[in-house]
Amino acid sequence: MVQINFGQREVSCKVVFYGPGMSGKTTNLEIIHKKAPKDAVGEMVSIATETDRTLYFDFLPLDLGNVAGMRTKFQLYTVPGQIYYNATRKLVLQGVDGVIFVADSNPDKMAENLESFQNLRDNLAEMGLTVDDVPVVLQYNKRDLPNALSVADMDAAMNPHKFPTYEACAREGKGVFATLKEISRLVIEKLNKEHAPAANRRRTAQSLTPQGATTLPPTGGTPHQGNVALPPAPAPVAPTPPAPMPAARPAPRPPVMPPSAPPRPPATSPNNSGTRQLAAAPRPAAPEDPKNRHLQKAKPPALDARPAQPQPNMGATDPTLKRYQDARQANGGVVKGLMIGVLGLVGLLVLLIMLALFVPAVRALMPMGLQKMLSGETSAPTEQAAHG
Amino acid sequence: MGNDVPNRPEVVGANEAMRLRRLVFYAADVDRINQGLLGFVKKSGAVSAMLIDQEGHLVARQGFTSGQADGQALAALVAGSFTSTRQVAKLLGEKDFRVMSQQGADNSMHIMLLGERTLQVAVFPVAVKPGMAQVFCKELAVQMEAILQEAAQRPPEAGQELGQNFSSAMKDQLDGLFGNL
Q: Which of A126, A182, A240, A385 has a CA 20 to 30 Å removed from the CA of A367?
């Protein structure tokens, strides 16, 4: 559920990568974490089993910077794909604003793809939603498999709703950002329609009535485009500078690829359906166990091995608070020191009294009156006087 | 807005219902929340205090945590942890668990559910005993619930809306960030 915080000037959206086990959801997140500009991504957090299978979720915060005066953030989650983790999938799906469904192009996995998509429908239905209420993008992953199903076959089996689809080879980073851009665009477009200025909102409300529905586009966002294939490799040109907007990022980021670099070899080839598909790339050297191939995915390096991250987001914490807390801590140290000193003195006194009571040598060092009092001699003369 | 879904008569479909359930916090409410959290941190000796949505969105935060605690990741993990605990509660026949505490060597964390969907999270140094921490947290919860309820009942503020160019500006921003990846 989108959170709009006019106090902090922030918009925060939740996107969930859904799909069957081992389809490449976590790999998508790892690639985004690895390749996105460093000041746009935060720490990636994984709650995974010892064998790197997602147990609860993976999480990656994405800060898209200042968009039209609002700092826009996306929270990217993955769900555990295995069938028996449905309870945790439901939890992660709560409040979702957009879904990227990562499907495996392996023909043997089609049944799992369909089962997982039905599971998505069921879980959304429990929240009172359908797949038409939430922006969905399909990502056909593992297009580098030699026996990958054709896009037309994948569409026929999986995409009766005509959701936008993208081909990808997540392990190599292909198609990952195109999918992310599309879901971000759809989520924001939907949000903008529903939370636009009053004039716009009245139109949205009208569109929900029968008359409005005939004249206005559905409120579910952009009409689904169907089969948006993997775009051709971008030419190494500088990005178009964004339109002027209040307090926008200071300058567009320079392209990662230097202008002089040779263009990427065409990774796609036209197929008979008019879309472009990834050419069957030579498979990497096959490891002994195909199951382990997926487990060898690049894990985020250990925290201490990572390069310095930008300053963690401190929200709108009052800047004077740090000084207050430091001062309080310092005062606390003084009070603590005084208390330790007083307790030490009391302890020393008790120790001396004990020694004086039980060690004659120590008692001999004390004044005579005190010695007599401690040895009980003060009462002896009185007793003698009474007897006498 | 706030805790409860407004039960308005014009709710006519899932899209509209989603729009009404959307969390919107206005500047005046966030200022009051921040003031409350700031006062709490100063009074109780807490290291940090924050309000998060049960889906893991950070609403407001005051104070500093040591280490690499990124507010976003912290909010997401706390929300995930608390949500799973609610499911455990249901398995035990409880409606939910409204309080959760974690104790570490240097810090302790106290989480309280406010209403149905907002979590109040406070991090204390070990010097503050769990009993005292609970007392401070309960005081803060009363204050925060009052602010959230008041915010939920107030109609949307005029002029506090996303600009009409938000969507197109977003497209440009995405192209700038990921256009060549």
A: A385
Do both A267 and A341 map to the same domain? no
Residue keyed to tokens 């989108």 = A2
B22/A129 touch (CB, cutoff 8 Å), yes or no: no
CA pair distance A260, A272, nearest whole angstrom: 34
CA distance A335 to A93: 50
- Does ipTM top 0.90? no
Mark yes or no for CB contact A70/B162 under 8 Å: yes
Q: How far is B36 from chain A (nearest CA, A)?
A: 12
Model confidence at A324: pLDDT above 90: no
B151 at A interface, C-beta within 8 A:
no
Residue A269, token pair as written in the block: 């080839």
Query: What does the alpha-carbon distance between residue B61 and residue B122 come to, in Å, rounded to a whole number?
Result: 10
d(CA A11, CA A23): 30
Is B162–A56 a contact, with Cβ atoms under 8 angstroms apart?
Answer: no
pLDDT tens sequence across B102-140: 999 999 999 999 988 899 999 999 999 999 999 999 999
Q: 3-class DSSP state for residue B51? A: strand
> What pLDDT is stored for residue B160 in this prediction?
65
Q: What does the pLDDT look like over A140-189, one tens digit per residue?
A: 999 999 999 999 999 999 999 999 999 999 999 999 999 999 999 999 98
Which domains does chain B carry? 25-153 (3.30.450.30)
Tell me the one-letter amino acid at B74.
Answer: L
Domain that holds residue A70: 3-316
Asked if the C-beta of B106 comes within 8 angstroms of chain A's C-beta atoms, the answer is: no
Which residue in the set A91, A133, A314 is minimally distant from B83, CB to CB?
Answer: A91
pLDDT at A283: 41
Main-chain dihedrals φ then ψ at residue B155, nearest 5 degrees: -70, 160
B15 interfacial to chain A (CB closer than 8 Å): yes
Same domain for A359 and A293: no
Distance from CA of A381 to the nearest CA of B (A): 55
Q: Determine, for residues B166 and A192 on separate chains, whether the beta-carbon distance falls below 8 Å.
A: yes
Are A112 and A184 members of one domain? yes
Chains A, B: CB pairs < 8 Å: 261
